[in-house]
């Protein structure tokens, strides 16, 4: 390993002298048998290169000496005080926040510091290494308590960095993309603020062996590079330190809570405005004549079905919670106003005066028979007893005892078949009342809804996250 460390160190030097490359080839070819008189090779080397080579050689020898007999299964200070592991991380970016799965994702640089006296040496500079330290020496078994999925980055190679200081302090940094659980409260959706935690603990070591602390205290241990998200604003980040106790013992726990305030602008244009337009459209029924039954019924049914479809689209990507959300109250009330407009028309239809058809359209009670006036004239020389029975189609049945009878049918004068003149129908008094009552009540609801939920949102933001 010693010659590899020397070669690694040489590669970082900006040496312009071609003899450096020649020296590196000599070291590589000789392998582990590098004599101490190597630095007196018979060719001229600058003092800068000579000192760098000596330092690299001493550093490699010190690291090898530290790793000789090193047992990575045993923690530092075994049997003594716990190892203090300091944590901080930098959030590169936040991913999508999914309400349906109650989870959020982010890309972070995870940084850890701890002290291992087995690496304490007298070399002057820290030693940097871009490799997985878990294969070489002991590292904390840090894990994320509420993470569902996580992955390291390996492009173009492992995104890991290790720095070992002369006093034995070890710095370990790695890049992780993770998806964490976030128990969301959707009562105020879409005017809500979600508090999503990231909990860090040791998987196997209790507080008697490993104790976790924030590197910069509880206020400066989380750095945010980018706060930009599609539907949320990151308003605050708070960190806490506490202990989790279970049947296995007491474990040190670090908790970072991110406050995500939802942006309502897109919901206003996608949910609230269409719902208001549907309610206003249902009021058009009040200006249509009650006699236009198909028009009013079609308009009412269309607005009702569209309102149901809108509510279904809103809750399509939402979890099936057991409580009503703020948007549900709004859509349900709007649906109630639309349905009330249909009920209003039914009441108007049943309380309107009955319009009787014109006289020319009436039919005789006996069916489709024409009414004919008949006149019967009787001429007789004496008294005549007549029994006259008027039959259909102007036929008279006569019974008499004497005399001559003369019958003369005369049709009754008919009225001309002219259509009735259309007249403007006066609006029903319930329609006239609804034209004023419905808009007044709905505007009152909109104002009360906005004031009420705005106050609840401010109260929720001021109260913030409650540490459980």
From TrEMBL:
It is a multi-pass membrane protein. Gene3D superfamilies: Neurotransmitter-gated ion-channel ligand-binding domain, Neurotransmitter-gated ion-channel transmembrane domain. It holds the Pfam family Neur_chan_memb. It is found in: Postsynaptic cell membrane. Keywords: Cell membrane, Chloride, Chloride channel, Disulfide bond, Glycoprotein, Ion channel, Ion transport, Ligand-gated ion channel, Membrane, Postsynaptic cell membrane, Receptor, Signal, Synapse, Transmembrane, Transmembrane helix, Transport. Residues 272-352 form the Neurotransmitter-gated ion-channel transmembrane domain. The chain crosses the membrane at residues 267-289, 295-314, 326-349, 436-455. Residues 61-263 form the Neurotransmitter-gated ion-channel ligand-binding domain. GO terms for molecular function: chloride channel activity; extracellular ligand-gated monoatomic ion channel activity; transmembrane signaling receptor activity. One of its GO terms (cellular component) is chloride channel complex. Belongs to the ligand-gated ion channel (TC 1.A.9) family. Gamma-aminobutyric acid receptor (TC 1.A.9.5) subfamily. This is Gamma-aminobutyric acid receptor subunit beta. It comes from Pocillopora damicornis (Cauliflower coral).
């Amino acid at each position: 390993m010693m010659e590899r460390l020397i070669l690694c160190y040489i590669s970082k030097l900006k040496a312009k002298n071609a003899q450096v490359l020649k020296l590196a080839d000599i070291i590589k070819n000789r392998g582990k048998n590098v004599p101490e008189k190597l630095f007196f090779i018979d060719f001229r080397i600058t003092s800068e290169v000579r000192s760098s080579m000596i330092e690299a050689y001493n550093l490699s020898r010190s690291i090898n000496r530290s790793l000789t007999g090193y047992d990575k299964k045993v923690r530092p200070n075994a049997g003594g005080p716990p190892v203090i592991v300091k944590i901080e991380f930098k959030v590169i970016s936040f991913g999508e926040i999914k309400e349906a799965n109650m989870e959020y994702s982010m890309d972070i640089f995870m940084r850890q510091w701890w002290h291992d006296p087995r690496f304490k040496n007298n070399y002057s500079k820290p030693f940097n290494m871009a490799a997985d330290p878990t294969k070489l020496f002991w590292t904390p078994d840090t894990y994320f308590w509420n993470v569902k999925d996580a992955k390291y980055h390996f492009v173009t190679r492992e995104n890991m960095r290790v720095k070992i200081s002369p006093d034995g302090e070890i710095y370990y940094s790695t890049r992780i993309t993770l998806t964490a659980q976030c128990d969301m409260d959707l009562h105020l959706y879409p005017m809500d603020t979600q508090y999503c935690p990231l909990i860090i603990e040791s998987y196997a070591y209790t507080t008697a062996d490993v104790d976790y602390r924030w590197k910069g205290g509880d206020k400066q241990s989380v750095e945010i590079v980018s706060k930009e998200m599609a539907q949320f604003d990151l308003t605050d980040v708070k960190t806490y330190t506490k202990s989790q106790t279970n049947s296995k013992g007491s474990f040190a726990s670090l908790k970072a809570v991110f406050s995500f305030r939802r942006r309502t602008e897109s919901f206003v244009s996608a949910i609230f405005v269409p719902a208001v337009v549907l309610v206003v459209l249902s009021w058009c029924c009040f200006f249509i004549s009650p006699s236009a039954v198909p028009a009013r019924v079609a308009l009412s049914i269309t607005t009702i079905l569209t309102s149901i479809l809108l509510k279904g689209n809103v809750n399509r990507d939402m979890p099936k919670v057991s409580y009503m959300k703020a948007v549900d109250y709004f859509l349900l009330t709007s649906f109630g106003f639309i349905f009330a407009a249909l009920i209003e028309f039914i009441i108007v239809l049943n309380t309107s005066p009955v319009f009787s058809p014109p006289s020319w359209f009436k039919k005789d009670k006996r069916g489709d028979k024409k009414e004919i006036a008949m006149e019967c004239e009787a001429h007789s020389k004496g008294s005549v007893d007549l029994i006259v029975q008027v039959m259909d189609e102007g036929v008279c049945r006569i019974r008499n005892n004497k005399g001559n009878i003369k019958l003369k049918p005369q049709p009754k004068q008919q009225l001309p078949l002219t259509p009735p003149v259309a007249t403007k129908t006066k609006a029903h008094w319930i329609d006239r009342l609804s034209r004023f009552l419905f808009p007044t009540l709905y505007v009152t609801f909109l104002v009360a809804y906005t004031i009420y939920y705005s106050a609840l949102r401010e109260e929720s933001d001021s109260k913030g996250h409650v540490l459980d």
